[in-house]
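Long-time lurker, first post. I've been practising inverse folding by hand and with some scripts of my own, and I keep getting stuck on stretches where the structure tokens seem ambiguous. Below is the full token string for one chain I'm working on. Before anyone asks, I'm not after the true native sequence, just a reasonable design that respects the backbone. If someone could post their per-position residues I'd love to compare against what I wrote down in my notebook.
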């Protein structure tokens, strides 16, 4: 539809409920069922013409497409395991990351790099117990070069001027990719971090 709610056209319908959507490019919408470690989730790329292409299907599935929609960070979780992956759509290649985190704790810096808050430990039944507020993470900040599979540690928040542990969410970057903003889920306070200076 347009902004006047005219010329409406249905391009997707499903008997399943509670789909989430991310619109990354003009032509592609990513739709994913809401995640639970005890339920199989599905994620698809949906074109404006209604064509679906599968991204992933796993328990505890959450996704984060890059700006061009060519790569997708996603998770697979169960009551006993948790893994993070990157799926490249044109090659259909899936790479398992050497670190484990939720897409909600990452932001893409361009199409090939991720800035991620990495929990020190990940307990069972994620993401459910984290969404419910029953557990909290203590994160460290990393830059992940997906194209070259390179992992660069930045810092732990408690070792900076902040002097406290953080459970980072709502990560966002400035246009030049050097300033990170985020919310500490522990107290819902907003912070900024200079990615060009590891001691700030």
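-- Answer (accepted) --
I ran through it position by position. Result:
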């Amino acid at each position: 539809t347009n902004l006047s709610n005219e010329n409406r056209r249905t391009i997707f319908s499903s008997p399943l409920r509670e789909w989430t959507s991310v619109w990354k490019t003009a032509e592609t919408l990513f739709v994913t069922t809401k995640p639970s470690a005890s339920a199989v989730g599905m994620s698809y790329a949906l074109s404006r013409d209604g064509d679906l292409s599968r991204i992933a299907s796993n328990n505890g599935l959450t996704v984060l497409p890059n700006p061009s929609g060519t790569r997708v960070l996603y998770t697979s979780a169960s009551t006993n395991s948790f893994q993070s992956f990157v799926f490249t759509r044109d090659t259909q290649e899936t790479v398992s990351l050497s670190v484990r985190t939720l897409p909600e704790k990452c932001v893409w810096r361009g199409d090939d790099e991720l800035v991620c808050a990495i929990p020190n430990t990940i307990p069972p039944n994620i993401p459910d117990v984290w969404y419910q507020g029953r557990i909290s993470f203590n994160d460290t900040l990393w830059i992940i070069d997906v194209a070259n599979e390179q992992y660069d540690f930045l810092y732990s928040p408690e070792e900076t001027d902040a002097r406290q542990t953080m459970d980072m969410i709502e990560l966002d970057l400035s246009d030049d990719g050097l300033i990170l903003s985020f919310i500490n889920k522990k107290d819902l306070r907003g912070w900024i971090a200079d990615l060009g200076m590891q001691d700030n």
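A couple of notes from the structure itself: Residues 1 and 9 are 6 Å apart (CA to CA). The radius of gyration is 17 Å. Happy to go over any region you disagree with.
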